[in-house]
Structure formats: C-alpha cells, structure tokens
Amino acid sequence: MESAQPSDVSGVFDSVDIDMVVKVLSQTAFSPFFTCFIPIFYIFQGEQYNSPVVFISSIYCVAVSAFWSLKWVSRLYRNQASILFGPRPIDWSDQIVVITGGSSGVGELLANTLAVRNVTVVVLDIKPIVTENYNITYYQCDVSKWEEVEAVKEKIVEELGHPTMIINNAGVVQGKVILDLSPEDINQTFGVNVLAHFWTLKAFLPNMIKNKTGHIVTVSSILSMMGTSQMADYSASKAALVPLHEALRSELDNRYHAPEIRTTLLLPGHIFTPMFSSVKMPENPFYKFFVPSLQPVTIVKAIITALDSQHSHTIYLPFYANFTPCLRVMPSYIQDFGKWLSGADTLMKGFRKVTTGGLDEGKPEIAEEKD
Fold this sequence. Notes:
Elements: E1 2-3, H1 18-27, H2 32-35, H3 37-44, H4 52-79, E2 96-100, H5 105-116, E3 120-125, E4 136-140, H6 146-159, E5 165-168, H7 183-211, E6 215-219, H8 232-254, E7 262-268, E8 271-272, H9 285-290, H10 296-309, E9 313-317, H11 324-327, H12 332-342, E10 354-355, E11 358-359
Helix pairs in contact: 3-4, 5-10, 6-7, 7-8
C-alpha cells in the first residue's frame, strides 16, 4: 500500500518508531554477541559460576543464540547454501535488471539506485521514466498484456541481452467498494497486479533456468493477508502473489532443478509514493510509533540487500507487518482490533485514483453513507 511522500518538514522525533526500537534491541538485548558478555560481566564482578544471576543470564544467552541459529539454518536450507562458504560477491556490471512500473515511486528510485551501481536497468511502464542515468533503458509496455510483454522481450534480448533479474513492482489500485468496481476496474487490477507477473516470468525465466542463475523479486503487500474496505480487488490481487511466489520456488527447486535462481517476496505496509497520494494518514504519535509508514528508500534498500545477498527472502516491512499473517487465525475481535489499530478500514475514505496523467480529477467514487 503506497501514498505520496509528505512535504512537511519532520521533527527530530518523527523517525523514532517501533522499527527503530526493534533494530536497536536486535543489536543489543537480542544479539548473541552482546548477550554472551552478560554472564562474563557478572563473573568478573565476583559472582560464582553457579550463582542464579550467572545461570539465568547464561540461559538467556543460549536462548537468543539458538533463535538466531535456527533462522540462519532455515535460510541456508531454503537456499541450499553451504554452511562454510557464502556466495561469491555479485558482479553488478554483468546484471540486466528488469523493473516493471519503474517510472515512478519505488520503481523509479530503485532503477536510479541500481544505475549508480553500473547496472543495466530496463524499465517497463506505460509512461517514460525521467532520469539522467545513461544505463537505464525505457520500453513502453502495458505489462498486463502478454502480447506487449512478448514483443518487448524480443527487443530487450536483441538490444541489451537476456535479463538476469526481474523486479515485479508494477501495481494499480482502484479504491472502490465492491459494488462500484466496474469490469474494466477489476480487469485492470488483476491484469497489472497479477497477470503481469506471469507474463514476465514466461518471457524471461526460461533463459534464467537455462543458465541456472537469476533473481526474481515479487512485490506484494500486507493487504494480501487481510481484506479491508475499498480494497477488495487490490487485496485479492496481492494475495494471489503469495502462492505464486511459493509455487515458483517449488518448481525451481523440484521441477526445473534450478535452486540457484533466487526468489524474494516483499510484503510492505504503507509506503509514501504517488499511488496513494489522496490518502490521509493519521497524525497522532501513537499511530506513527506503532504503525509507521515507509519511505521508498527503505523498500529500495531491502530489495538491493536481498539481491546482494544472493539468497531467497521473505521480507515483511515495517515490523508490525510480521504479525499480519497471524491475524487470519485469531478471534474476530483481535482481527478487528488490528484493523482499528492500523486504520485499514477507514484510510481509503475520499480516495481518488492516480492515473498516468496525475490525480484523477473526477469526484470520489465512494459516498459517505456507503462506508
């Protein structure tokens, strides 16, 4: 879920949120390196080895270390990686990265950031990207249509070579209640948000399988885990990407025997980009602390870190997004509390769709009494 970046100057404490607290704690109180010094500190202070404080702090250190060790083993298992040897550093100059929806928002920032790394970047969008980077090549393409993706694939291969990475980032939102969605709205949502992923895979995956290398990033949303008012089509389309990602991983491992091709699923919360420029986010400090919005640079950093690691990932951003899958199995009152806390059912009131020409000047589609 995305919206336009606020123009107001932020205060010094505006960046302090639950994500910052979790990051600090992960490097201190929940860090194996840090916690191993706690019992040592007590021993140096004169405590006996069998004293309760040394015993408890040692158990805590073991528990923290076990948690991170299991995560590390899980990551190695998922990527069929070596315990002793990590992947070789990626040579970015050899990469050809296709970014769908790369002319604005997260896609635009990602394209320009990769271009600085001397990466050959291909942007597929219905409008051109405005950039001064010479190694970004734009191709006009409606990625919801197979014929256009197939045709542009031939141009890319002929002019630049076979892509080695795909960032399926393109997305669209209608912001209407179910009964106000026209057939054209629904076809567009599922065409851009779902079918485009199938078309880029059909176009570019065969050569990756042939070379046994590559990386595919699927940009979904935390709204794939729950349905909210005025987001039925968007949530349903983003939900379709989760099993698509999982099925792709299974087929690469078991059918195509190409586990070296990495797959990353990104499940972000609210992002400050133009697509949701008409959404007004709550301004109260409680909301900002526990349900922070994301800057595009945070998403770009996460994607590039995943590509750099050459491992498959499932990335939840911000921190509260990690708990959204749990809501589905919780009692209804807890689900409703989670929606209330995030404002998910009310944020879209008065939403106006952003088209390629800018903000839709038509009247909002949702009448107040229908909410």
